[in-house]
Design brief:
The protein is mainly alpha-helical. Helix content is about 70%, strand content about 5%. A hairpin with a 3-residue loop joins strand 1 and strand 2. The longest helix has 25 residues.
Length: about 240
Amino acid sequence: MNSPLHSENIVRRSLHHEVVEKLRELILSGELEPRSRVNEMALCERFGISRTPLREAIKLLSAEGLLELLPNRGARVAALTDAEIDEILEVVGALEATGGELACERITEDELQMIEVATCAMIEAWRVKDYHTYFALNKQIHDAMIAAAGNNTLRGTYFSLSGRVQRARYTAHKTEEQWARAIDDHNLMVILLRRRDGVALAKLMRDHIRSKRAIISAAFSAPAKPKRVNPPMSPANST
């Protein structure tokens, strides 16, 4: 039988985990935008919690790179520079390439069928412009391929790093050409998984991630500051 102290510790750990997940979802969904301040009072009221578990969650998410701690001013959602985006996408591309190559060796028939079904549903969502469903399925497919690689170290590294660009990757607006490229890539992913062609799939995954660079950069870019225009000189002030 658990002691009251032991039960309390379990409750506290569960609350901590729940707050972290809720706050992470607000960031990754785009509800909390890059560079926006974290309103602790509003979030505590929304989650029905005290500031202690919220601040613990903020510290953890700052360690993940999703939040930035401000000296004596709370925290804000982290933004990425172009150089940081390039570095992250290089690594995420390598991880997805390795994941795809390993998945070709290790994926089960059930896992492959799940990816095929999700891909068909994702394409249908795109056709009817149900973008919320599209992005959810898109993420599910990429995560499933990494899971099918059967490498827990790769999986953990991928999830911790890809989270830093996940919001922009799955919610940013695309041009018609970018949409068409994404759909073609996902159709080809299924074909290459079926063929167990790890070399071709690895190259496709690197190129697929590289193609997201402009989209992600635009999502994280700071809004342009209006140019200062000097007022015209009045005749009385002109020389």
